[in-house]
Design a protein that fits this description.
- With 380 residues, the chain is of the alpha+beta class.
- It has 3 domains: 115 residues, Acyl-CoA dehydrogenase/oxidase, N-terminal domain (Butyryl-Coa Dehydrogenase, subunit A, domain 1, Orthogonal Bundle); 108 residues, Butyryl-CoA Dehydrogenase, subunit A, domain 2 (Beta Barrel), CATH 2.40.110; 143 residues, Butyryl-CoA Dehydrogenase, subunit A, domain 3.
- It contains 12 helices and 9 strands.
- The strands form 3 sheets. Strands 2-3-7-6 form a 4-stranded antiparallel beta sheet, with no helix packed on it. The chain has a 3-stranded mixed beta sheet with strand order 1-4-5.
- It is globular, with a radius of gyration of 21 Å.
- The structure holds flavin-adenine dinucleotide (FAD).
């Protein structure tokens, strides 16, 4: 067993960390006003980071999973804008994989270069108001007519929805077929009948635009279907394995940054004549934060290793998602406690992580759903 990263991977981490640190401009203000940093997004596209997630024949670098995770961990450590981190993670783990997995050459050649360029946004349309954890209960429909598919329905709580140019839409082509009645479509949002709207203010991840997408009798050609009819849920499961495995990789980097900040504060802040870190209640929190960080890293890289071996990682994907999301919330709360009132006031930029971390308990399947999956895969 070799836990070392190669020299090239370490260099990529250092480069990505330095690049990510140059982003996060005006974050306090943008968080308050819920503003996405489109300039930073263009910088990410220019930097070439996105290319690591795309095969060489599409102008990518085709990194293995371990290299991808290492780059994202470093990005999360450098970039304080958790909304931007999720925007990046969503593109590379929820949008690229289904297109690359079952897209036709025409679909790949049309959309991947636009997405790499950084001025074309894509949203992943699964959740509906009445179908969240139970995604198969979705009502959105796609009916085949002689002119193409007619799309109806509404997707809610969707990242990038208000500014999306493209939606990966999951809809029922046969409502009587359960999981086998779901199909997937690549829908450009400039067609008739689509309405994009913005959610009202949210608890955290405010710099990531989020909202709903309504389809009112939209017509798309048959060529807009992504994969065969009826394979939507198997594509969903395949994409979800990538998403649950790695969508929180940036958060592991964020936890490393948080830990450094807390250690420095625990050493410098004095109460009762000595550094607060001298109290065991503070040092225990630091120890817990460090242990959580290591546990998350081990699971994240073990899952990446499995993927690089071409092995299935359904169990590890759910354990990774559950562990990192819960750990980030716990460590963010510890960071607030260690910083006292400074931790609680927005201007010191400690509390934002706690608000942002909470979203991770919900997207890509809630913690309860991950536990259900883990118990089932454990044989229950
Ligand atoms: C920040 C953020 C970004 C998101 N981005 C996207 C996106 O880009 N695309 C997209 O399609 N969706 C997105 N979502 C939506 C997300 O996937 C859903 O919110 C999630 O699947 C949960 O669905 P729900 O909100 O309807 O909750 P519900 O499914 O109604 O769950 C409510 C509660 O009941 C629990 N529960 C439900 N069923 C069970 C069960 N069987 N066993 C135990 N407990 C259960 C849940 O764990 C939860 O605590 C996003 C959500 C957030 C918060």
């Amino acid at each position: 067993m070799d836990f070392n990263l190669s020299k090239e991977q370490q260099e990529l981490k250092s480069k990505t960390y330095a690049f990510a640190k140059s982003l996060s401009k005006d974050l306090l203000k943008r968080d308050k006003e819920s503003v996405f940093d489109s300039d930073a997004w263009k910088e990410i596209a220019k930097n070439g980071l996105l290319k690591g997630f795309v095969p060489k024949n599409l102008d990518g670098f085709d990194w293995d999973a371990t290299t991808r995770v290492a780059a994202l961990e470093a990005f999360g450590e450098g970039c304080s804008d958790n909304g931007l981190c999720l925007a990046l993670s969503s593109l590379v783990w929820t949008i690229f994989p289904p297109i690359l997995s079952v897209g036709t050459d025409e679909q790949k050649n049309k959309y991947i270069p636009k997405l790499l360029a950084g001025d074309f946004f894509a949203a992943d349309g699964i959740t509906e108001e009445s179908a969240g954890s139970d995604a198969i209960a979705m009502k959105a429909s796609a009916s085949l007519t002689k002119d193409g598919y007619r799309l109806n329905g509404k997707k809610s709580y969707i990242g990038f929805a208000p500014i999306a140019d493209l939606v990966i839409l999951f809809a029922k082509t046969d409502p009587n077929m359960g999981a086998w009645g779901v199909s997937t479509f690549l829908v450009e949002t400039d067609i008739d009948g689509i309405t994009l709207s913005h959610n009202n203010e949210k608890m955290g991840l405010r710099t990531l635009p989020m909202g709903s997408i309504k389809f009112d009798n939209c017509l798309v050609p048959e060529s807009a279907r992504l994969g065969e009819e009826g394979v939507g849920m198997s594509l969903f499961n395949e994409s979800m394995e990538w998403e649950r495995s790695f969508i929180l990789a940036t958060q592991v980097g964020t936890m490393a940054r948080q830990l450094k900040q807390c250690v420095a504060y625990a050493k410098s802040r004095k109460q009762f004549g000595s550094a607060i870190g001298a109290n065991q209640s503070i040092s225990n929190r630091i120890a817990d934060m460090r242990t959580r960080l290591e546990t998350c890293r081990l699971l994240l890289y073990k899952t990446a290793w499995l993927k690089d071996q071409g092995k299935t990682a359904a169990l590890e994907a759910s354990m990774t998602k559950l562990t990192i999301s819960e750990a980030f919330v716990s460590s963010s709360l510890d960071a607030v406690r260690i910083h006292g009132a400074r931790g609680y006031l927005s201007e010191f930029e400690i509390e934002r992580d706690l608000r942002d971390a909470t979203g991770g308990l919900i997207y890509a399947g809630t913690s309860d759903i991950q536990r259900n999956l883990i118990a089932r895969l454990a044989g229950l």
